[in-house]
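Lecture notes, unit on protein representations.

Consider one protein chain, 262 amino acids long.
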Amino acid sequence: MIRPVLTTMVWLAVIDALSLLAASAFLYTPESNPLMLLLSVVLVVAAAVVAMLSSSSAAWGLVHVRSPWHGLGPSLRMLPLVLAALVVVGLLCGGAGWFEHWWLRRAGEVDAALIAAGDVTRTGWLHASVRWCVALLQWVVVPAWIAASLAWAAAYGRRDMVSLKWLTAGLHWRLLLVTLAGVLLLVWLPWVAVYWRPRALPASTIEIAFTVIKLGVIYLAAHLAWALALWTAARRVQPAPGHDQARPAAGSEAAAVARHSS
């Protein structure tokens, strides 16, 4: 478990850094003429494609028990499936955000209705529950769905992705638990310390080095959380009969060698 997760983490961190580099170049590109405007579009598309390729190739490698860089070619063919899954998950995530906004705008009406119906005056827990449910959906269930969609795209292909069965697979308790632990321990907790610095730290190059190291640790921790979610989703994939192409490529190569030698 440790080696593939760490390999996936490093792969994700390196490729996502390239995506961030393209996004940063877009922010610093002046859109003063049509050529610069075209360059901005190219940089945005490149950043999005590289980000999707990093996660999809990592998922392919975990599903097929290969190194993630071997999944770059298959990941290019997976991109339409990944994009479609992201649209579905984005709609669900956006719908949850819209519901929270709608609920908060009508919180007073809900309070008035509860008072009129049963003289209920303590409704803070209800509004807090709605906010927590939306937060859990957007920060835990949505990443679990994305991880499950990548694993299913790598293992099963177009037919099973269109059936949206990966939405149900993303709700498995083990995947949700790993995603929740990753978000709490490897994303939220390190982010709390993003502005922390020792008081005795001198304002010099040492402070700059400390900041760079701190942000690097936070960056790697977030990618470790994502690698764990992808690994858990990949372990849940069970290729059905007729999906031999989803089995580990190394096994296929070994079988081919055995047939040749016989």
